[in-house]
Predict the structure.
Amino acid sequence: MGNYEVGIDAISVYIPPYYLELKDLALANRTDPDHYLVGLGCRRMALAPPGEDPVTMAAEALETLFERYAVSKGEIGMLLVGTESSVDEAKPVASIVHGLLGLPSRCRTLDVKHACYGATGALRLACDYVEKTARGALVVATDIALYDIGSPGEPTQGAGAVAILVRKNPKILTFEPFVEAVYTRHVWDFFRPPHRQSAIVDGHFSVQCYLEALEASYLFFREATGRSFLDFQYLLFHIPFPKMAKKALARLHQVEARFSEVPCSLEEDFERRVEPALYANAEVGNIYCGSLYLSLCGLLERAQDSDASALLGLFSYGSGSCAEFFCGRLGPDPNAWLGQTGLLEALKDRKRVTYEDYVAWREAREGEIGGKRFRFKGLDKGRRLYTSPKRDESRS
Ligand code: CAA
């Protein structure tokens, strides 16, 4: 990657302050709660109330980044947004967020789209840019994941944003040179035509596409670097639902077994190298572009000092499909990356929402409650609260 080491110098998270318990969703969908909790590994889904969208979430994640790390807005020369739930077909989220944050006008802004791979594609572009200039680049992954009510994808929904600052000589994660361990295959496993808020998905087929892309990109990575997945202290995957990580690890075990003996059981390996990051995804749900980086934040919050300089393997998958396997090394000073992402604070102060409110919020988002507006109720611990139109109606 040239003369410079490039990677993540700051990272922060925004999670909407509301959640639905998947037990409540299972009850409403007349399903055994263990189907969602054990079968998919999901526990709660973060819910964005009307009034929040991928723009506001991206801006919140960036605000946290500027508050928590020493970054001057003047040094930013690029802002890229990875999203698949944009609010406009022409104007990028990046442009609106650039205005909200007051970033310098000598700055390139654009959205990068390829389903959940968008943010990783953006990260690659940002790394190339940073390597060639004296400035920093921001990448924000921001999405609200919606599937049809009662559909198999519904329990995997989530909402949130992750903001990343890419700089030279980064303190958090230095990427090893990217070796083009990328894989594209045109498939209709998951897509969302412009008139729809929720995705159309062939769920079981999408799982097969994900695993096929993982195998192919891992083999490219292995061949180009001489590294195997056994070299990593932790493995981070795109997480549509936490159980997917176990399926992914199982596939890597199978592939690697063609070359050498894998010296640990799947269960033991999963517990040691994959599970430590997954609690965040289980609490939040799928945040599409940000899902892999939410896992990274989960790890950065719970890692130990002894994880300094640990080598991480990362796999990014976007339906449609495009995928990439890459790796990076944690910084040598844990004080620079332990517990600074804002994730734990965001998870601590959330409010539980009823199934009925969840449905009402969705209907409002999908424009099915004609003309009625959500009412701003006030602030609770600095966070915005809303009443739903349905509740307002029942009171009047
Ligand atoms: N107790 C314990 N486990 C149970 C159970 C119970 N009572 N009932 C079911 N299960 C288990 C099943 O045995 C199954 O386990 P395995 O996967 O280990 O076999 C698991 O729960 C899932 O159950 P089903 O096979 O019946 O599948 P489902 O109807 O729950 O649908 C899904 C699963 C297809 C993934 C669906 O959630 C979906 O469509 N999700 C959206 C698409 C998606 O996430 N795809 C992932 C790859 S694509 C991608 O990654 C991009 C992206 O972000 C969308």
In short: DSSP finds 13 helices and 17 strands in the chain.
